[in-house]
Amino acid sequence: MLGNEKYKGDLLQGKTFTVDPITKRRLGNLGEVDQYLMKDHHEPIISEEMWEQAQAILKRRTVVHENSNVDPNSYREQYSRKFAFSCMVKCGFCGASLTRRSWHSGSKYHKNIWLCISSSKYGKKNCPESKGIAEEVLESAFVESYRMITNDHKDVLEEFLQRTEEELHSDATLQEIDRVKKELKQLEQKMQRLLDMHLEQQIDFGTYEDKKLEIIKEQQLKTTELKRLQGEADVEKDLRKRLDAMRKLLSEAPILKEFDRNVFESIVEKVIVGGYDDEGNADPSMITFVYKTGFEDKKKGDDYKPPRRNSKSKKLSSQPTDDSGKLSQQATDVARRDYSVATKVELVEILYFKHFYEHFTFGETDWSKRGKRLEKYVRVSIVIELVTVGTKLED
Predict the structure, then answer these.
(1) Residue 346 in contact with residue 368, Cβ under 8 Å?
(2) CB 38 within 8 A of CB 58
(3) DSSP of 164-214
(4) Which of 19, 49, 218, 307 is most deeply packed, by most CB within 10 A?
């Protein structure tokens, strides 16, 4: 139904043809006979723009998976879109898609992990550098990336959009399309003159056939070039729409306190998990958000990991020492309080987490005594103080 041209008001005749008029056997027309397209034959049900968008989606869904370990004749990407990251997360090492898996299902340690399909389905040896990444890490990283491009890095994104628009304003592709169309029209006129010369017996049949084949070859080359240029023009047109959508988002950017699937799907083209740093070392936790305008933002996945749920409580020393290793006066006072009754104070950590909040800190650095540094998170530790009361101290 999505591929039926009747919905946009056109009519294509000759989709099938009769093989045998006696048996009335009919086959689908794959080029055996001519087809005829009648534009605006009847009132359309949907607009032509919407119909073209549906064809683009269908074409994208039939793209063969770019994984060498997968049989291209049997495996194709499935756009089920059941989850926010379905078919949008790619491996930065082998290029394959990431698949969703549930770990520790039904327990308090349950979490959703995205794994490279080459590694999880065909063995670790096919993609040894990749590692699983938690879904909540991807969500937290996107919220931070979105906040930075809409607030902190808004000027950088604006400059990128402006530079991209300047490149799109060039009409070189449209001029090339007009040139190729004119050359095709000239070839048609040349073919007609050649036919007239043959009918007027100015050239023999052999010469006519040779010249005709030459013109047909030129027409095929020009037709291929025209399709390529039209494809480039369609890409530029789509990119202009994406730029307009991104500008609208910058002007009406909602504040995200948590992950929003609608916002994510409207501005992100794909997410790349894993990659190599500037020194060429493999970094499986690297997250790269590729926005629909072509802008890329890289995040360190380890910075967005939640605390381990099965981590044991850490005991902290309750008696601070000075540089010489001796107990400070504060620790001595705590130990001697409560009317000369021996007490033992112990701090037990019950919760530890990172609160992601960008702020500046000042401290001594190699080049300055009061260096300024940008921090991305604050470490928060919640502890309880345990006081054990012992026997009374002797004088």
Answers:
(1) no
(2) no
(3) HHHHHT--HHHHHHHHHHHHHHHHHHHHHHHHHHHHTTSS-HHHHHHHHHH
(4) 218
Closest of 243, 269, 225 to residue 169, by C-alpha: 243
The Cα–Cα gap between 44 and 291 comes to 34
Q: Locate the DSSP E strands across 277-340.
A: 282-291, 296-300, 315-316
Give, rounded to a whole angstrom, the gap between the first and last alpha carbons of the chain: 97
Tell me the per-residue pLDDT of 274-311, one tens digit each, with 9 for 90 and over. Answer: 999 888 899 999 999 988 777 788 899 888 888 776 66
Q: Which helix (H) or strand (E) holds 370?
A: none
State the pLDDT confidence band at 378, using cuts at 50, 70 and 90: confident
pLDDT surpassing 90 at residue 135: yes
3-state helix vs strand vs coil in the chain, percent to 5: 40, 25, 35
What the block records as the tokens of 265 is 């799907």
323 contacts: CB under 8 Å, gap ≥ 6: none
Alpha carbon distances (Å) from 153 to 146, 150, 164, 297, 303 = 10, 7, 17, 10, 19
d(CA 138, CA 114): 9
Q: How many helices (H) and strands (E) does the chain have?
A: 9, 14
> Using an 8 Å Cβ cutoff, are 287 and 138 in contact?
yes
Strand partners, 198: none
Q: How many CB atoms are located within 10 Å of the residue 149 CB?
A: 23
For residue 64, what is the DSSP state? Answer: B
Give strand pairing partners of 384: 348
- 343 exposure class (CB count in 10 Å sphere: 0-12, 13-18, 19+): middle
Residue 318 has phi, psi (to 5 degrees) of -95, -5
